[in-house]
Amino acid sequence: MTDPLAPLLSLPGVADAANAAKDAVFQVHRHRVNLRGWATTAAEASVRAARASAALEGGPTEIPESGEVSDPVLAGSLRVAEALGGLVGTWQRAPLQALARLHVLAAADLTTDLGRPRVSEDVSQRLDLLGSLVTGGTSVPAPVLVAVVHGELLGLAPFDVANGVVARAAARMTSISTGLDPKGLGVPEVACLRRSAEYEAASVAFASGTLEGLAQWILFVCSSMEAGAREAKSIADAALTG
């Protein structure tokens, strides 16, 4: 059976970028704090990722001192972050079910049409194809699969709202489930927020389907993983000195 993503590895710079992303994330897992105290650093990474994802969706980043979040976008992003670990197994077995659950969590305060993708043959076919890739239909390096999951869900926008939060969460689950970032230490979402204009341009390029656009997006995602690894190192360094 032909691997539908294999041609992506021949795009200029993609193979090297994927290897660099893998190496950066691996080194974070070797940080001495993360060898034993990774649960604490992973929890901090999860919150930072949720805040950045909410901001990219138009929500605030600050969590009130009371801990009671009233903004519906931020509240949804935090709910997604809290549930993500428990959804990884479902993502590996039944990814469309996991996507529906992610949408329920992300959009609970935004719409009553929860967990149901738009009724469209194109949406259905593309989600089915994405599901087949996640469940073993490709053997490309994990960063490339993460980029495809992220970019396809952003471009397809299968739900009426909260598609960005769902796409970034699905990308994060893919990083975890493939073993690229099994403990969820990286925070590429922060890099996406800091380079939001480039993030948007790259996602549009991916959606165009051109070879140049596909390469632009994958290279961006890989570089955000490297930046996310640096963010993770800063979290671990702070835990070490704190």
Task: Please explain how this structure is put together.
- This protein has 242 residues and is mostly helical.
- The protein has one domain: Fido-like domain (Fic-like fold), CATH 1.10.3290.10.
- Helix content is 71%, strand content 0%.
Count of extended strands: 0
Class computed from helices, strands and strand pairing: mainly alpha
Low-confidence stretches: none
Please indicate the count of domains: 1
CATH second-level architecture: Orthogonal Bundle
CATH classification, class level: Mainly Alpha
Helical fraction equals over 70%
Q: How is the main sheet built?
A: none
Could you give me the name of the CATH homologous superfamily? Fido-like domain
Q: What spatial form do the alpha-carbon principal axes imply?
A: globular
Q: State the order of secondary-structure elements, H for helix, E for strand.
A: HHHHHHHHHHH
Strand content: under 5%
What value does the Rg take, in angstroms? 17 Å
CATH topology: Fic-like fold
State mean pLDDT (0 to 100 scale). Answer: 96
Terminal CA distance reads 52 Å
> Number of helix segments?
11
